[in-house]
Please model this.
Amino acid sequence: MASIKKLAGQTAIYGFSTIFGRLLNYLLVPLHTYLFPQPAQYGVVGELYAWVSLFIVILTYGMETAYFRFSQLDEFKEKTYSTATISLLVTSVLFTVFCLLFSQNIADGLQFHEHPEYISWLAVIISIDALTSIFFAGLRLQMRALRFAFVKITNITVNVLMNLFFLILCPYLVEINFAPEVIHYIYSPEIGVGYIFISNLIASVITLVLLIPELFKFKLSFDLKLWKKMISYGFPLLILGLAGIVNETMDRVLLRRLSPPDIAQAQVGIYSACYKISIMMTIFIQAFKYAAEPFFFAKSKDQDAKQTYSDVMSVFVFICSFIFLGIMLYMDIIQHFVGPEYRVGLGVVPILLLANLFLGIFYNLSIWYKLTDKTRFGAYISLIGALITLLLNYFLIPVIGYMGSAWATFICYFSMMLLSYAFGQHYYHIEYKLLRIIIYIVFAVALYLISTLFYFDSFGIKMAINSLLLLFYLFVVYLIDHKYINLIIRR
Model:
């Protein structure tokens, strides 16, 4: 159907910006893991960005989805954007001021006593990202995907360039003693990994400048009645988001606290680096989310909405299963994405890839509680997931280290997926193609496991056989489901 093609087009644009941007951004992972060969150094970055993710969710408090929801209502259509913008602006400013005033206290609480400046830098990054989230939401709702893509790509390009400038160019200029009186004012070797945060800060500021015109697209006015409704709608999503962040990132924090002190920060560094090898799965899911949320809301009024949601789910799972298989079959190449000292943790990659696949299915399923205004169920499910994450990390990390964190993530997302499906079928029944979905996943996992049973002295032969396995997957899926796939394409 035309609507799926439209979603595919929007996903392609969001996907290009996300893929291009994430690829640039994730190229920083080999840069960082090779420049900072001690995993403990990179562990600082992994842990602090876990806290960043948590506070971005807190500072946005469900406003993006609330904006999508209430902008569909004629009563509030013209006031939603400005009300959400003013709300986020006020809370972001208050948060920044608080963190700047108490940066040392916060650093002490997080056990980064010697680096209160990290807290100040990250507070500004968090506040800017929270505020600009509503600007990006406005672009998504208006389907201005190209403008969205331009700003996103600019942000990440600047971040990458600043990393290259501070971590490669400046040390080189110091080494050759080039203009030392100038370099002295812009670079200090003692800052080290802190330049990762400084680069992010510069990129965030430039993003804010680029998005300022979006602030004046609508008449700025604050509707208290609407704001209360948006907060009421968004609060369960805040709980959902917090629980989601616990599931996604708090394992880094727990790893440091629950691992033996002499290896704790190194465990965080290894796990954080290997976690990012699941980049392609994460990229596709993120691109899909950007396009799907406004699409699903707009599609909900059509008679064939549920059929569309079912078709989208099947295509989504097929693509994710293919990504899983592709990454695992070419792991001998992809492992060079991280420095040699980090590759000991590669065993987490297949577990985390499948975990993220289940998370992607959960995102697809979440349409039922958003359309029926039962967002509290999303919060309940995510809280259960967070509880699973915390308990399993608590018991598994002391026994098997970061592998425990990986398995906790897998079990958490699998459980959330099952719960959302069960509740969704009761409140907003959709006939998903369950057998087809299971076949896509199980077949991909089976081919990967088969590939691990054989050992080849020749790297070329191994890669050739794995390539044949990947093509075999596509061939068998098309052979079994070619009528369905052709139907989707024609639609």
Observations:
- The two ends are 3 Å apart (CA to CA).
- The longest helix spans residues 224-258.
- Residues 2-490 form one domain.
- The CA atoms of residues 9 and 150 lie 16 Å apart.
